[in-house]
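[Meeting: bench + compute handoff]

Bench side (C.D.) handed over the final construct sequence. Compute side (W.E.) agreed to return the predicted structure before the next meeting so the bench team could plan truncations. Sequence as handed over:
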Amino acid sequence: MPPVRVKSRPLPQADGGLRTPSPFGSSRLVRFGPDLPDIAAEDSFRDVVKKISTYITEAVQLPSTFEQLRTTSAGENLRHLVEHLGRTCTHPAIVNALLALKWHYGAITEDKGLHDARANACEIVAWRFLTHLSEREAVDYCLYEIPEQPSTDSDGRRSDEEDGEVDENSALLAQAWNGTADSARRAFTQSGSGRRSMLFQSITRLTVSMTADSDDEDDEDDPTAPFIHLNALEIAAIADAKRFLSQNVVQKIITGIWNGDIIFWDNLSAHSVKKPRFYNRATADPFSRLRVPKYLKAFEVLFFASFLFLYYAVLVERDPSRITTLEVFLYLWFAAFSYDELSEWIDAGSVFYATDVWNIFDMAMLLIGLIFFILRIVGLRLDDDWYIDLAFDVLSLEALFMVPRVCSILSLSPYWGTLIPCLKEMGKDFVKFMVLVIIIYCGFLTTFSLIGRATYTFGEMTWFLTKIFFGSSYVGFDIMTKIDPIFGPPLMVFFVMLSSILLMGSLTGMLSNSFSRVITHAREEYLYVYSVYVLEASTSNRLTHFYPPFNILALVIFRPLRLFLPSDHKFRKARILLLKATHLPIVGAIELYEWAMGKVQNGGTQYNGMKGPRHAIVPSPMPPQKKWAHSPVRPGRPGAQQRDSSSSLAPVETMHPASAASMARLSATRKRAAEEAAEDQIFEGADGELRLQVADLSAKIDRLTELVITMQSAQSKSLTDVAVA
């Protein structure tokens, strides 16, 4: 009797396909869950958001914490989504869409527990998706800015082809204003705070869009339009995605921006375009280093130190009869500081500006400085000593905000960066608790003032109760019989017990609880503050950024001319020329510093300015000893074939497809890691001995991989013969 040939029946895969059973007897269970989204590279950002939101809504049906979604079976569907996106998705705005949904779900007030779980799910998928990418791909995805959808006018021409130029930013960012466009579209193409403040207004319409059953998108405004020209990191900062920003893959990008390894402007010319790129010392304009956040912060420290010096010098000098030279410089420093804050608010936007608590101190400093200037001029004009003395008294109040402002410099260090958020949260809880204290205090003050009106005035009783509340309990026992011999003693004993034991003990426990709550997430808080500062300092749409006090010079020269002259290329060239003339010593100091750091770090080699992730993807070459057949995979993202979790590369041999694909991917991944390690010697200055060890290890891994493939091929062939027999 001839042997019966057993034909295996394919099993369905988790992504909806079919899979052949493993010859070793193990097979993957069929996954029941929501349909995985099919995101094409040509989909609009709105389509991507809708597809992802549909899956997240079906995948997360119960309230879950972040840790439950990350570690338990409640996040199983999220793992399938991450694998699916890492294998098939090539859309450059996928991370932007996930973080926009994080903000969308987090802003919904109804059914808060469920929507917070969905917001956490979007954040988890976003950072897990980045772990499937190489470092350079992660940079491309995190710094990808959502483009504006082209619109057409009545003549059929694209609106972005108009020649109208509004200002310096509009030409560089290709954001021309179309006179025939609707008001909503024109508002969304604004830059700065006008555009970002509209993000809050889009929450309601975004919610309606995600839950609506109608597919007619032409009759409603695009609720995702306010996200135009924002990159994923900016959306993460606005969405309060602190866990996403604290991930190592994201922090490496932010650190690269901080150090200037990743820049947005590589040269200063009238035709420059804002685009994230990796710094190349050989081709980049040295004046582009003025936009590096690290150097911006260093010059900010120097400017603030000189500001403090002038402030104390004017207070010590205190000439009531005339405005001295030091006072004139103080006014110039105040003006430069005010204009720089205004430019920062316009460039970063009100959303980013509000996230930095130190900007509140800046606003208070500017307000006090303005009041001092007005009182000083009025006093000198009227020759009134009272106004002059009041002006200097008001200026003395500046120290309450200017001196603590030094902590903003310390907040960029890990220790102070974790301590300051704790103090901020404790201050918020203290203010809330004091509302209860004031209410109780007013009740006792009313009672004691009325029953003791014959002995003490209202002002005296207020001062007595204030001293009792802050610990002087003996004062209450001394005056309780004088207030009233009947009601005074029991009321005073109760007030002393309430204030000294219950309220103060509750306040201490609450502040301790606040400190413990924040310190557990102190690293996330510190990295969030650090990330917001870096993004605020680096993502400005302004080509020419003048350091204070040079910004006053640019304001005096070019602002009046802008009222009469068009903002053309010649106007921009003039601004660039002034920038280079005034900031040449600063650029020289930066170049000297980078040259010295290159000497120290690279052992005498020249500083290459490239310590972070690399930009161009270098594909791994095919192993020469085998012939490889490419399986179908969606094109578009470089390196997607190496990350395909099904079978991106399979050897043409008689062996089990799943095993061969796994070992082939392992070999390709190891080779890629070895090549990137070899490439790192260019950027990180690895010594020769380490390079030889990496190359030797790579060769051993390749030989071991080939041996395992051969053994599994032989085992698969023997199992097939047994099955046929």
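W.E. noted at the follow-up: The longest strand covers residues 628-630. C.D. will use this when planning the next construct.
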